[in-house]
UniProtKB/TrEMBL annotation:
It comes from Marinomonas ushuaiensis DSM 15871. Keywords: Cell membrane, Membrane, Protein transport, Transmembrane, Transmembrane helix, Transport. InterPro entries: MotA-like, MotA_ExbB_proton_chnl. GO terms for biological process: bacterial-type flagellum-dependent swarming motility; chemotaxis; protein transport. This is Chemotaxis protein MotA.
Length: 245
């Protein structure tokens, strides 16, 4: 679990409540269920209108990376590629058949299987690069879905405030109730800004970084596996792969 994300969320929200307390504000006024509903549910609904259920499911599956990030061990992958390069040089490419499942992800296994099957190196490079880009684009589409939720949240917060003001104006004959209603109304704006800038956008940046790192990892695998396919010297291949980090 990524405790940095949890710590960041705790610090961010604590700062808001602490600042409110220092200003003499009532914490209870910051807790408003209708405001949370219109901001969170409304933003999600607006995003679904511009997308489809498949994109939504993929986005929420990707969302788990914010707490359980993927691990891309470049050092282990380099060591494995180097061993495969030495093995293919000593024996043959066909000797790598037993190592197809030695990688911990389908992309690598599929790429090595294509090498064992004797796919032309030039065609191999093109296909693997296309696969890597498709995986990247699909993940970034999910990231964009989540980012759209944050984009709509501030506007929904303003709408919630307007709705709250309408209800507050119904109590013009009661100044005390009117003041309370106006205070609660502006909580929606706070929720919209807070939901977008303290939760959604930071998570989007973190997910984008993981997706970029996955692409870099795939590019290293492509260079390594294609280097093996063309019979590149293992030590030269090792030097080239060391540039990936």
């Amino acid at each position: 679990m990524d405790f940095v994300t949890l710590a960041g969320l705790l610090i961010a929200f604590s700062s808001v409540f602490f600042a409110n307390w220092l200003g003499g504000g009532d914490v209870v006024l910051l807790l408003n269920l209708p405001s949370a509903i219109i901001v969170i549910a409304g933003s999600l609904g607006a995003t679904l209108i511009q997308s489809n259920i498949k994109d939504a499911v993929r986005a929420f599956v990707l969302l788990k990376w914010s707490l359980f990030p993927p691990v891309y061990d470049f050092n282990s992958a380099r060591a494995l590629l180097n061993n495969l390069a030495h093995k293919s040089r000593r024996l043959s490419l066909f000797a790598l058949e037993s190592d197809v499942r030695s990688f911990d992800n389908p992309f690598s296994s599929r790429a090595l299987q294509m090498v064992v099957d004797g796919v032309d190196p030039d065609l191999l490079v093109d296909r693997l690069n296309d696969d890597a880009v498709r995986i990247y684009d699909k993940k970034m589409k999910s990231v964009a879905f989540i980012e759209s939720i944050g984009g709509y949240a501030p506007t929904l917060g303003i709408m919630g405030s307007v709705l709250g003001l309408i209800q507050a104006m119904a109590n013009l004959d009661s100044p005390e109730a009117l003041g309370q209603g106006i205070a609660v109304a502006f909580v929606s704006t706070l929720y919209g800004q807070g939901f977008a800038n303290l939760i959604v956008f930071p998570i989007v940046k973190k997910l984008s970084g993981y997706v970029d790192r996955e692409l870099l990892y795939h590019q290293m695998l492509i260079d390594g596996i294609c280097g093996i396919a063309v019979g590149k010297h293992p030590y030269r291949l090792e030097l080239e792969l060391n540039t990936y980090e």
